[in-house]
Amino acid sequence: MRAIGAGFGRTGTTSLKAALEVLGFGPSYSLSEVFANPEHIGFWEAAGGRGGEKVDWEGFLAGYGVAVDWPACSFYEEIMEAFPEAPVILTVRDPAPWYESTRSTIYGLRRLTTGPLPVRAAFALAGPFVPGVAGAVRLADRLVWEDTFDGRFKDRAYAMEVFERHNEAVRRRVPPERLLVFDVREGWAPLCDFFGVEVPDAPFPRLNEAREMRRRLLGLVALSAAAPALAVLTGVAATVFLARRVARSRYR
What we know:
There is one protein chain. By secondary structure, this protein is mainly alpha-helical. The chain has helices spanning 13-22, 31-36, 41-47, 57-60, 76-82, 95-104, 111-114, 117-126, 131-148, 156-173, 188-195, 210-250, and strands spanning 3-5, 28-29, 66-67, 88-91, 179-182. The chain has a single domain (3-250), classed as Rossmann fold. α6 packs across α10 (156-173) and α8 (117-126) packs across α12 (210-250).
């Protein structure tokens, strides 16, 4: 493990992930890995104390050079213990714009599990067809919105307090020589100075802007609605096909 990201999502973690990969520190682990590998959900549930068993951080993250964003940032201390040589990067952002960005983007996924009944029903039906999406959304519900924000993310002042409290805790718990407090707007210089490497001959990555994130979320919502609808249409078509075959066999 070359670096551990302790910053919450929507603090530039996607840009940090890309930057570290440019520096040769990847591959990276983030929430997108859960979408692609639904079998990972059980590990994170166990890490959150729902299974009672001890988790193998070294084994689970052995193939990754970087861990950033949720759910990893919720367990930065445990990952630090498993990889005692790995430095920690705390990505920071002013609390107010962080809250508005999070509320208008990734918090929208919570509507899939707590929104109007038709939305929740469609999402439930979609689960077997898109296990990565369904699992990642439910995992975020538990580890982020319930465990981290106590189900009170809609309370703007409280959510911002949790955000600031987390950042203060990271600053307090991580030894100064092992910690980089990083605002991605600063670009390559602080990151490269911290790792003692040369600045790449390429622009610093500026990824996952709010507009693009909202577009992706709309795609996930549409996918959740489309999967059960497709299943229903397929079922109707199959029923009609079988009924016709039975009807034909009766008249032969």
